[in-house]
Write a structure and sequence with these properties.
2 copies of one chain form a homodimer. Chain A is α/β, with parallel strands linked by helices and 227 residues long. In chain A, 37% of the residues lie in helices and 12% in strands. The first copy, chain A, has helices at 12-23, 41-52, 100-115, 137-150, 152-157, 171-180, 205-217; strands at 2-7, 26-34, 57-62, 119-121, 161-163. In chain A, strands 3-2-1-4-5 form a 5-stranded parallel beta sheet, sandwiched between helices.
């Protein structure tokens, strides 16, 4: 079996990618970043998804991106609610965390080199979040080139590959593929701004995209929402 | 004044680069990574150098790279001593931390975007550490391309620049430049494996390169060594 690192957040996308990588025959090493996101419930979801998929190796690494501020995912900035559907993903939203995917992929690269893995999987999508610069194919290509210049393993083999299978998939397609692979989406977490009672809000950009995806896939979301 | 981020480790090289960047007229934002290096005294050195240079903004960010293991800088692996001088820098040494400079530059990029800086300075050298893949010009070029693809500021301006002024300098040249700029090298720290009494060992690869640099520069090192 090949070794592969998966950036596993506990969200719907990275859980689906983990299931895809497993179906590809990869032995997975999961890296979950605890960046003091406002929604700590994501970390529990990441652990539950790893267990569900039989992933033996998981590191939960604290990196306090709050120190850098300026995102509604880590600061006390209001998460936008009820954004008109045609506006979602059209500009860089205030949930953007500066250089987040660069930091995460760099840590995944360090983990990969340590365990002798040359495959790195992550669940970014250029469809849902076209406004995030680090969710675009150009970003992935640039990172792959960097990985092969930056590491002992990369220089010796030119073999690092970044896999983002969802890059051009709709959320509905992602959900259908995950269900085919037997994934339990009730274990995942999506909401950027849970209600005080702990339920998903159903109204933030992230919830809206998820709910729309389930509607388009023609299946019901196993999560319970505040409204 | 331009804003610039400096990766400040407390070592001789990054202290010199900070002095150079200050002389360039940059307003500096220092990022010091606490990666549970065995030599915690480095962090004190980084704080002292920042204070000496009048740097107002410094973040000390914990990132526990020990989780990834496999380097003598973070593990209980013996640091090599008394390496023959002609062997230094010829292969990838066991002090190599997987993807370290990639992780550090990614965090610097996050900090830079947060404070609106497009200049990032770091003290790597292709002369002293040619064996480290992430101390080569190819690595810096690849990272600059990544930075301009990965961030809002980079996409909007294509303006990120990575400055590694020491890249082709000998240690002696670095020391002479730092002394011209009034730097106090007694505040810096270099040793990979300090003696139990807290003094620099004088025999590890890092100490050897430093001592050789001072000899070649024709000045005495203000640090006190075990032998």
């Amino acid at each position: 079996m090949n070794h592969a690192v998966i950036l596993l957040s506990g969200g719907l996308d990275s859980a689906t990618v983990a299931a895809i990588a497993r179906a590809d025959g990869q032995e997975l090493f999961a890296l979950t970043i605890d960046y003091n996101q406002r929604h700590q419930v994501e970390l529990d979801a990441a652990r539950n998804v790893a267990q569900f998929l039989g992933i033996q190796n998981q590191i939960v690494l604290p990196v306090d991106l709050r120190l850098f501020g300026s995102s509604s995912l880590t600061d006390e900035i209001d998460v936008p609610k009820d954004v008109p559907k045609d506006q979602i993903g059209r500009s860089i939203p205030n949930t953007y965390v500066p250089a987040r995917n660069t930091v995460f992929l760099s840590l995944a690269l360090a983990y990969a080199e340590t365990v002798g893995a040359r495959e790195i999987y992550l669940g970014i999508s250029a469809v849902d979040f076209s406004g995030y610069p680090d969710c675009r194919p150009e970003f992935l290509t640039a990172f792959e080139q960097l990985a092969n210049a930056a590491t002992k393993l990369g220089v010796e083999t030119s073999g690092f590959r970044i896999h983002a299978p969802l890059l051009h998939w709709s959320k509905a397609k992602t959900i259908r593929r995950g269900l085919e692979l037997g994934l339990d989406y009730g274990l995942t977490w999506t909401c950027y701004d849970p209600a005080p009672n702990g339920l998903s809000c159903g109204r933030c950009e992230s919830c809206s995209l998820r709910l729309q995806g389930f509607r388009e896939a023609g299946v019901s979301d196993p999560l319970i929402y505040e409204k």
